[in-house]
UniProtKB/TrEMBL annotation:
It holds the Pfam family MMR_HSR1. GO terms for molecular function: GTP binding; metal ion binding. Its cofactor is Mg(2+). GO terms for cellular component: mitochondrion. It comes from Myripristis murdjan. Belongs to the TRAFAC class TrmE-Era-EngA-EngB-Septin-like GTPase superfamily. EngB GTPase family. Keywords: GTP-binding, Magnesium, Metal-binding, Nucleotide-binding. CDD domains: YihA_EngB. Residues 105-278 form the EngB-type G domain. InterPro entries: EngB_GTPase, G_ENGB_dom, GTP-bd, GTP-bd_ribosome_bio_YsxC, P-loop_NTPase. This is GTP-binding protein 8. Gene3D superfamilies: P-loop containing nucleotide triphosphate hydrolases.
Length: 287
């Protein structure tokens, strides 16, 4: 049923976006992923569904399924991530201080988290339908040294931040905190936590900082491909407990992603399109 509906949505002729010159990853678009078996596709679109079977029946699933857009909405959101002459996706500029940040009017979202947690990789995966947009990733922590601004047409801006913790740039605090506090068009901060290692001391400090700043933010659990279901679920439930008891401005649902396997990337694209006001969600109960 689910696959049938997906194929209906993706019928030839309904997909008008132009694929970029460089070849995109085979799972970069829902259209390409739709050839996968139903269970795999379901886990790719809604990663929590792949974990549910391993979860004790007594655990409340609700907080993990609050944002559950329909396929129609995810397809709508994905279209924003294709570049075209009238909707250019591009690296815009970098800045090391908030007062050097570009004056952009469109809604902005930013990605923060420990060095090496996978911020740049996640942005690269979001932009995988436009692979000519260069987002640099590295095994070496502390790779991203500046705030890098990427514009998505006139719809929104995505900002890749340097990481905190090991090998963080010296001016991290001066750079990131004022940005989070004062940036007017910032509509959402995504705080990344490594799902394969769970919450670390530095993550708790970042959560505290976001709470103090008191602007809406969302926790994104990265690298969910990197560990077994047991470890991931333990880390996830621990995180959920902290979110429930120690946060107020955090969106109660952690979003799960793997930038390498594209798990949760379509859902995150839809979330960004939604919070920036770039799409209106239609019926969300179609899953
Ligand atoms: N297995 C796995 N590895 C990942 C994933 N995302 C990122 N990585 C790896 O983690 C390392 C760090 O990735 P980056 O995206 O550069 O991390 P970052 O948070 O931008 O790091 P800094 O710029 O140093 O703050 C790289 O070796 C990536 O390949 C993922 O989803 N799964
Ligand atoms: Mg980086």
């Amino acid at each position: 049923m689910f696959c049938q509906r997906l194929r209906l949505w993706l019928q030839p002729g309904t997909w008008v976006c132009v694929m970029s010159q460089k070849s995109a990853h085979k799972l970069a678009s829902i259209q390409k992923a739709s050839v996968l078996p139903q269970k795999k596709l379901q886990a790719l679109l809604y990663p929590f569904s792949g974990l549910e079977a391993y979860l004790d029946r007594s655990v409340d699933r609700t907080p993990f399924q609050l944002f559950q857009p329909s396929l129609e909405n995810m397809v709508k959101a994905e279209k924003l991530f294709y570049t075209s002459p009238s909707h250019k996706i591009d690296y815009h500029t970098s800045a090391t201080r908030t007062d050097h940040a570009p004056m952009l009017k469109q809604p902005e979202v930013c990605f923060i988290g420990r060095s090496n947690v996978g911020k740049s990789s996640l942005i690269k995966a979001l932009f995988s339908l436009t692979p000519e947009v260069e987002v640099r990733v590295s095994k070496t922590p502390g790779h991203t040294k500046k705030m890098n601004f990427f514009t998505v047409g006139k719809a929104f801006t995505i900002v890749d931040m340097p990481g905190y913790g090991h090998r963080a740039p010296k001016d991290f605090v001066d750079m990131v905190e004022p940005y989070l506090c004062t940036r007017k068009n910032l509509v959402r901060t995504f705080l990344l936590v490594d799902g394969s290692v769970g919450l670390q001391k530095a993550d708790l400090i970042a959560l505290e900082m976001c709470e103090e700043i008191s602007r809406p933010y969302v926790v994104v659990v990265t690298k969910i491909d990197k560990c077994g279901h047991g470890t991931l679920l333990t880390n996830l439930l621990n995180l959920q407990e902290v979110m429930k008891t120690q946060t107020t401005t955090c969106f109660p649902q952690p979003l799960l992603v793997s930038s390498l396997q594209f798990l949760g990337i379509y859902l995150l694209r839809c979330f960004i399109a939604h919070v920036t006001g770039s799409i209106q969600l239609s019926d969300t109960s179609q899953r």
